[in-house]
Design a protein that fits this description.
single chain; 245 residues; alpha+beta; four-stranded mixed beta sheet; two-stranded antiparallel sheet; 7 helices; 6 strands; 31% helix; globular
Length: 245
């Protein structure tokens, strides 16, 4: 998916970038200037936008001017035919095949591949979502950092490079985050029906186009920028995050 740069600060000017030409001759074909999250919330105050990311909908994606693209295969890399790659003593191919056959073990298999004893990464089980410079909530995921540069005493100063979450895990977490009014003593059909209606309203029709992915990428971008600024490094023109579904 493509995600424009943004700012959640109320003092920031319109800061989402556009790839269209700035020439006056093509200005009529340019999309409207994108705004910060704060500005979008103020302009659309009649809509319920400031909610937990698990309750984001397609409207959030539309207002943030994000869109998903069809996935494509990465270019093939010539592999050595002498010895197979091993991960914790097991062939890499067996770990990859296990990802397809054992859904409940996907998270641990991904960690074995990326962050095992011989892997280059270490991980945390969440990232933080900020709005208006305040920590709003934690976003569950497996967030990977290079072992060589990770600081356990100050993880926000370390730059994340890869995030992973299984789409079935997103569904489970969304169901737990949908508000419900339940009476433990007895079953209420109207209350159950209302819960399912709320859950359906925030469930994307296409799982791989989940708005939670957008919120997670925004959180990753914030974390990366904070780490770069904290390390007094010049921010690159573009910061690429990788999200695996």
């Amino acid at each position: 998916m493509r995600l424009p740069s943004f700012s959640s600060s109320p003092s920031s000017s319109s800061s989402l970038s556009s790839s269209s030409s700035s020439s006056s001759s093509s200005s009529s074909s340019c999309p409207p200037a994108a705004l910060s999250i704060y500005q979008l919330a103020r302009l659309n105050c009649h809509q319920r936008l400031l909610v937990n990311p698990f309750q984001w909908t397609g409207r959030h994606i539309e207002l943030l001017q994000c869109f998903f693209e069809e996935p494509s295969l990465a270019p093939s890399i010539a592999l050595s035919a002498t010895e197979p790659d091993l991960i914790d003593g097991k062939p890499l191919g067996s770990c990859v095949r296990a990802l397809c056959s054992e859904r409940h073990m996907k998270t641990s298999r991904i960690f074995i591949i990326l962050g095992g004893r011989t892997g280059p990464f270490t991980s945390l089980n969440r990232t933080h979502f900020y709005f208006n410079h305040e920590h709003i909530c934690d976003l569950p995921c497996d967030l990977y950092f290079l072992k060589s540069s990770f600081d356990w005493d100050a993880p926000m100063r370390s730059r994340p490079v890869v995030a992973y979450i299984d789409r079935h895990k997103i569904d489970d977490l969304r169901r737990k985050n949908v508000p419900r009014q339940s009476n433990r003593r007895r079953h209420s059909e109207p209350t159950t029906a209302l819960f399912h209606l709320k859950y359906k309203k925030v469930t994307p029709p296409e799982p791989v186009h989940d708005p939670y992915i957008v919120a997670l990428l925004i959180s990753l971008a914030y974390h990366q920028r904070y780490a770069l600024q904290g390390n007094h490094k010049e921010e690159p023109a573009r910061t690429h995050s990788t999200f695996l579904v």
